[in-house]
Specification:
By secondary structure, the protein is an alpha/beta fold. It contains 11 helices and 12 strands. It folds into 2 domains: 1-64, no CATH class; 76-347, TIM Barrel. Helices cover 32% and strands 14% of the residues. Helix 2 (61-72) packs antiparallel against helix 5 and helix 4 (151-163) packs across helix 5 (180-187). The longest helix has 18 residues, at 23-40. The chain starts with a strand and ends in a 7-residue tail after the last helix. The structure holds iron/sulfur cluster (SF4).
Length: 385
């Protein structure tokens, strides 16, 4: 290995330019610098960073990560789909996202787990999964929906939301992984120390997991399917379970983690049970948020097996399964122990979205607690919307 990174016991290191380095050498630089920075605690995003306008001490580890992510886009394997397309030349893979990234909504919101709010949530256009029930399906299909993400402008927006009281930057989709290069470049431009939340379907490639390491304070991961067959049928993804479970383990070793599972009607035994078992065997301490907010959108409206809400029996059975495996279903409601809080306590408010569809049906998103049961009681017999 050519030594291209000199390091001391501080977080500082020097590299003699990035352009001339091969990608293999750049990964060597990355791994050395990451190890050093993690030991010194120098790159936690919640700690003050060097002024991004300073000419001193550049390139930084974040610059190295950004360069690697941008190179990856030329033969894209940012996620486990591994389309190997050159997105810098206008080619697109499964996600349909090219070189540029767009976000269709951003705001301080109170709809996430209590320790995270108020959270500056950013919803990106484009996703690498094709979940039949996707509630942001318009942004799934239109990858240029919303605002073009320009790193300097976006960093300014994030800094402003932080000043307004946002406890963290919460990167959501679609799926943030497909936008990793521009996200890293934006983070490198932040002037305010800001905890970063990676809110993802966990289909990242191993390369992307390495690039996220040391940057992310908290992973919020949707563990969607308990087997490959359901993942293929509902989300058009092959070899889902191995990739997702590998990434959950990796995330738990490198940052805080909340695992979510949105219960899908009719998928208690095939999906929830294997997920609960895997969690008990592998991450028994990880906070697990079992969610009952399923509402059919998109293709699920045409699929009789998916076009309904959960029954009370399904919810009760799901709670019994999770309880029988001893999963930690309370911890996500409070600060995560053993690490500094990611956010200050929120006000207790919840941002709820009401969507009236062209056919007159009404969907209510981000309902919590007893409100879910009240809404269901008001709906048509509790079994449909
Ligand atoms: S991000 Fe994933 S889905 Fe999109 S082009 Fe790259 S490998 Fe394919």
């Amino acid at each position: 290995m050519r030594r291209v990174c000199s390091a001391s016991d501080t977080h500082e290191f020097s590299i003699h330019g990035l352009d001339g380095l091969s990608t293999d050498d750049l990964w060597d630089v990355h791994d050395q610098a990451l190890s050093l920075a993690l030991r010194s605690g120098a790159i936690s995003s919640s700690r003050p960073k060097q002024n991004p306008d300073s000419p001193l001490a550049r390139p930084t580890l974040l610059d190295v990560k950004t360069e690697l992510a941008e190179r990856n886009m030329r033969e894209c394997s940012l996620c486990e789909r591994r389309c190997l397309v050159d997105r810098t030349k206008g080619e697109t893979g499964v996600c349909g996202v090219g070189e540029k990234s767009y976000y269709f909504f951003e705001q301080r919101l109170w709809g996430e787990e209590p320790p995270l709010v108020p959270s500056h949530e950013v919803f990106f256009s484009g996703c690498n999964m094709r979940c039949a029930y996707c509630y942001s399906w318009e942004a799934l299909l239109d990858t240029t929906k919303g605002n073009l993400l320009v790193p300097d402008e976006f960093a300014g927006l994030v800094d402003r939301r932080r000043t307004e009281g946002a406890a963290n930057l919460n990167l959501i989709g679609g799926e943030p992984t497909v936008h990793l290069p521009v996200i890293l470049r934006s983070i490198s431009r932040l002037k305010q120390p800001t905890p970063i939340v990676w809110n993802s379907n966990f289909l990242m490639s191993q390369e992307s997991m390495r690039l996220l390491e040391g940057i992310i304070d908290l992973y919020v991961g949707d563990f969607r399917f308990g087997n490959d067959e359901c993942a293929q049928k509902i989300a058009d993804v092959d070899r889902y379970f191995d990739a997702a479970s590998r990434n959950f383990k990796w995330a738990a070793n490198s940052a805080d983690l909340i695992v979510r599972h949105l219960l899908i009607p009719g998928h208690t035994e095939c999906c929830l049970r294997p997920i609960a078992k895997w969690m008990a065997d592998n991450l028994p301490e990880a906070p697990f948020n079992l969610m009952f907010q399923y509402v059919p959108f998109y293709k699920a409206l045409e699929d009789p097996s998916l076009c309904r809400t959960l029954t009370s029996d399904e919810e009760r059975e799901a709670e019994e399964i999770v309880s029988s495996f001893g999963l930690n279903t309370d911890r996500w409601k409070t600060y995560l122990p053993g690490r500094p809080p990611v956010a200050e306590a929120g006000s207790g408010e919840v941002s709820t979205t009401v969507i009236v569809r062209p056919d007159g049906r009404v969907a209510i998103m981000h309902l919590h607690g007893d409100l879910i049961h009240i809404a269901r009681a008001l709906s048509n017999g509790g079994e449909s919307q």
